[in-house]
Each structure stands twice: as structure tokens, then as C-alpha cells.
């Protein structure tokens, strides 16, 4: 779980650098994918903690909500 969280934070940092430098600011499709993935990831992680899901499920959340926006960046 610590490894997945660390990788997710690194991906988010990369996305923020792309946003702040203006590289992905005007890419509409990438922005929509990123926003949808991050919003759904926030909701799923709230459920993950509130309902005490098994830790292996975090990798699925990571794949859809962190890796997908990273790859579109």
C-alpha cells in the first residue's frame, strides 16, 4: 500500500508540473479524463477508508485514477 501511494503521489506531481507549465492546459480531452479520474478516485478512496476495503483493491483504484491520467499527460 505504501508503494502504490508513493507512486500515485509521484504521478500527481508530474501532472501538476504539466499543468503549471501550461503543457496540458489546453488539451481538452486530457483535462476531462484527468478531472473525471481524480474526482472518481477521491470518492472511491473515501469509500476505501470508510468501509475498510482490503488493501489489494487500492491497486485497481491506482490504475484507473492515477495511472490513466498520468499516461494521458
Could you explain the architecture of this structure?
The protein is an all-alpha fold and 73 residues long. It has one domain. Helices cover 79% and strands 0% of the residues. The protein is built from three helices and no strands.
Q: What is this entry, summarized?
A:
The protein is mainly alpha-helical and 73 residues long. The protein has helices at residues 2-21, 28-50, 58-72.
Topology readout:
Layout: H1 2-21, H2 28-50, H3 58-72
Helix pairs in contact: 1-3, 2-3
**Stretches with pLDDT under 50, minimum 5 residues:** none
Distance between the termini: 24 Å
The count of helical stretches stands at: 3
**Amount of helix:** over 70%
Q: What pattern of helices and strands is seen along the backbone? A: HHH
Proportion of residues in extended strands: under 5%
Subcellular location: Membrane
Membrane topology: Multi-pass membrane protein
Organism: Helobdella robusta (Californian leech)
Pfam families: TMEM107
Amino acid at each position: 500500500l505504501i508503494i502504490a501511494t508513493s507512486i500515485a503521489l509521484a504521478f500527481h506531481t508530474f501532472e501538476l508540473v504539466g499543468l503549471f507549465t501550461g503543457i496540458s492546459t489546453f488539451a481538452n480531452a486530457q483535462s476531462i479524463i484527468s478531472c473525471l479520474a481524480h474526482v472518481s478516485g477521491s470518492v472511491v478512496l473515501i469509500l476505501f477508508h470508510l468501509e475498510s476495503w482490503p488493501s489489494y483493491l487500492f491497486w485497481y483504484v491506482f490504475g484507473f485514477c492515477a495511472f490513466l491520467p498520468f499516461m494521458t499527460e
